[in-house]
Write a structure and sequence with these properties.
The chain is of the alpha+beta class. The protein folds into 4 domains: about 95-100 and about 135-280 and about 295-330, 2-Layer Sandwich (D-amino Acid Aminotransferase, Chain A, domain 1), CATH 3.30.470.30; about 340-425, OB fold (Dihydrolipoamide Acetyltransferase, E2P) (Beta Barrel); about 455-600, DNA polymerase, domain 1 (Orthogonal Bundle), CATH 1.10.150.20; about 615-700, BRCT domain (Rossmann fold). It contains 28 helices and 24 strands. It binds 2-(butylsulfanyl)adenosine.
């Protein structure tokens, strides 16, 4: 919604609203404005994927509306927020009616209400022992996936609960969603579940976005919603999405499960991912116990959970209990409190990233949230700050948003005393004093401030950090502290400068012993032979992440090939669209980048992968390599590792020599490991090794480090 001022749309924080709408004797005007307010929050949450208030506040408003509607049923119209499940159908996708409506759940933050829910069902079904299941409530985006005779046919969003968006091609890109079930359960099985982004993938995605100048997502759920909304499923396939199924819509199968436990077991037998953990309980006390257990282990789950869902186990009793217009009577959601704390916002500073983008960061009076001290929180971008009306000196509610990066949720407006100051983005870069440029990004509707000076020390450091990073050229010892010193002492400006360093220069840096200086230089030297895709990725072309870099390496086989690519050639590659292609062309057209490449070539960096023929060699990534196994690997048996190496063309040998390509080392590795270390032979952990193997068919894997050493 370009041009719309969201601050006018939302009438301040929810807390204020809770007081101002008196539920005892509401008038029609109050009711109407509450409806309007909830609708605008629905829009912010479902359509913009930018919630303006916390879930709890939203739930408070929603309850007030229910209360008023109970007093005045005559006011309810079919478009009241209580009369639909929420969400809107997005433009651009085909709208498809749900054969069985996708309902929502009643939810509560109170254990007493959980007990009341159980009691109510016990009263409904007297004289029979009831069983309940309790599952994590996955905080993601609800979807329905329809299989016909075991084959995937269609995937829909919830939409408004009655009609959803057809996002089949997007869902098909999610690796954990099978295109064919392990066996054919019968004519139709529509499973329902939650698509989510694992925490680790979310962190990486945001790093990547910030690096290419795109705004970060506020939390994994927004990142998921944003990803599924993409019209280009190729972009979706790059997003680290996953799914948990927990329910069904239409189910016309040969053997219908009689209980939820049977249903969950059936999911597993069909190859569909279900909840990582669930509990079967017979009474309120054991449900409360399970809730506690879930609460204490939820941080270990790979996804965000905002509570638990408690369901009747018996399918027959579920049918008997039935649904209200909005939610089933046989299930209830219990939500955990988000971990939030109030504190004073002392100052706002900006951080300059690798591409020059300025990110506003709140400096806070330190507070303890969920066991760790928080003294900084992201303010995301200017639009977000304006929407929340954040000012220096404000009392702010800080949340570990998505439990990952602390974020400012809202301002306590009632605490203001007039001394608060509005923050303005600096007109000049705090690092290099260059004038800042303001950019409007039409695709995301956001404004970005950027330092255009490519020699800005912050950008120089950022580029070098990316170059040395594990996912990049993987240079040992090349951490942030050392890079800062190298840049400050003017020894290094570009990645090419790293290859000119000598031991005296590095050892002269503060707190740098000869040994660690040598280790670092060894790491730099070893990085000369990294694979082409790492080199491409490390160059930091905007919009080129590791997976795009892999596609480019595979397609062009050399940096010079890539530098001469045409727009047409680039967009014909699977992951690459117009934006990325243009960004690549612009990058190579820049004379500074051209001379960087020339220098890197002169320093002997691998700019060509002539030994690597992606088409014919892909399945035999270890061809010509001699690999040594030592120690106990965490999961693989020795025999399994040997088979894998041989299957991909490698040879396992018993002893380490200079010719050894790499050593695959586990726990308690002894003399072979030492020898490898002394000879400078590359050492891989099981995880490193597995990461090299092709994961979806052997076609798209690049050779490991050293595979192309000539
Ligand atoms: S059962 C009739 N089980 O939470 C609806 N829902 O707040 C049955 N959710 O709409 C839903 N984890 O999108 C169910 N284990 C789980 C869930 C779950 C997350 C979502 C789902 C639902 C919403 C309700």
């Amino acid at each position: 919604m370009p041009g719309m001022d969201l601050r006018n749309l939302f009438c301040g924080p929810g807390k204020e609203a809770l007081v101002s709408v008196g539920v005892m004797a509401p008038d029609r005007g109050q009711y109407d404005s509450l409806v309007e307010k909830i609708r605008s929050h629905d829009y912010a949450y479902y359509v913009l994927a930018q919630p303006a208030i916390s879930d709890r506040e939203y739930d408070g408003l929603y309850r007030q509306l229910l209360d008023i509607e109970r007093l005045h049923p005559e006011w309810i119209t079919s478009d009241s927020p209580t009369q639909r499940v929420g969400g809107e159908v997005l433009d651009g996708f085909r709208s498809v009616p749900h054969q069985a409506p996708m309902l929502s759940l009643d939810n509560t933050y109170s254990a007493n209400e959980v007990v009341a829910f159980i009691k109510k069902l016990e009263r409904l079904f007297p004289n029979q022992p009831l069983e309940f299941t309790l599952e994590p409530k996955v905080d993601g985006v609800a979807v329905a996936v329809r299989y016909e005779n075991g084959q995937i046919r269609q995937g829909l969003t919830r939409g408004d609960g009655t009609v959803g968006d057809d996002i089949t091609s997007n869902l098909k890109t999610i690796r954990s969603i099978p295109h064919q079930l392990k066996k054919n359960p019968g004519s139709v099985l529509e499973v329902r579940g939650e698509v989510f982004m694992p925490r680790s993938g979310f962190v990486k995605l945001n790093e990547k976005r910030l690096a290419s100048g795109d705004p970060a997502f506020a939390n994994p759920r927004n990142a998921t919603a944003g990803s599924l909304k993409q019209l280009d499923s190729r972009l979706v396939s790059e997003r680290p999405l996953d799914v948990i199924f927990y329910g069904f819509g239409v189910m016309d199968i040969d053997v219908a499960p009689e209980t939820n436990v049977e249903f969950l077991e059936m999911l597993t037998s069909l190859g569909l991912p279900g909840p990582h953990r669930y509990w079967v309980c017979r009474d309120a006390a054991s449900i409360l116990g399970a809730l506690e257990e879930l609460n204490s282990m939820r941080k270990e789950l790979p996804y965000e959970t905002d509570g638990a869902v408690i369901k009747l186990n018996s399918m027959r009793l579920r049918e008997e209990a039935g649904n209200t217009s909005k939610s089933p009577r046989w299930a209830m959601a219990y939500k955990f409190e988000a971990e939030q704390q109030l504190t004073r916002l002392r100052d706002i500073v900006v951080q300059v990233g690798r591409t020059g983008v300025l990110t506003p960061v709140a400096e806070l009076d330190p507070i303890l949230i969920a066991g760790s001290t928080v003294s900084r929180a992201t303010l995301h971008n200017e639009d977000d700050m304006k929407r929340k009306d954040v000012r220096i000196g404000d009392w702010v509610l800080v949340e570990k948003a998505g439990e990952v990066i602390p974020a400012v949720v809202r301002v306590e407006l009632g605490e203001r005393n007039g001394s608060e100051r509005i923050f303005h983005f600096p007109t000049h870069c705090p690092e290099c004093a260059t004038e800042i440029v303001k950019e409007s990004h039409e695709s995301s509707g956001s404004t970005i401030y950027r330092c255009p000076n490519r020699s800005c020390p912050a950008q120089v450091r950022g580029r070098l950090i990316q170059w040395c990073s594990r996912g990049g050229m993987d240079i040992e010892g090349g951490g942030e502290v050392l890079i800062r010193q190298l840049v400050e002492s003017d020894l290094v400006r570009t990645p090419a400068d790293l290859y000119r360093l000598d031991i005296a220069q590095v050892a002269s840096l503060e707190r740098m012993a000869d040994k660690s200086a040598q280790n670092f230089l060894d790491g730099v030297a070893a990085s000369r032979k990294r694979e082409l895709w790492r080199l491409i990725y490390s160059l930091g072309l905007p919009h080129v992440g590791a997976s795009t870099a892999k596609s480019l390496a595979k397609e062009f086989g050399s940096l010079s090939g890539l530098s001469q690519a045409t727009h047409e050639q680039l967009v014909s590659i699977e992951d690459i669209g117009d934006v990325v292609a243009t960004s690549i062309l612009d990058w190579f057209a820049d004379p500074e980048n051209q001379s960087l490449i020339l220098e890197l070539t002169n320093h002997g960096l691998l700019v060509e992968e002539s030994h690597w023929n992606a088409q014919s060699g892909a399945t035999r990534i270890f061809t010509g390599q001699s690999i040594v196994l030592t120690g106990t690997l965490p999961t693989l048996k020795r025999q399994q590792a040997t088979e894998m190496i041989e299957r991909f063309g490698g040879k396992v040998s018993a002893s380490v020599s200079r010719k050894t390509s790499f050593v695959l080392a586990g726990d308690d590795a002894g003399s072979k490991l030492e020898k490898a270390q002394s000879l400078g032979v590359r050492i891989l952990s099981e995880a490193d090794f597995l990461a090299l193997l092709p994961d979806s068919g052997p076609e798209n894997k690049q050779p490991p480090h050293g595979a192309v050493v000539s």
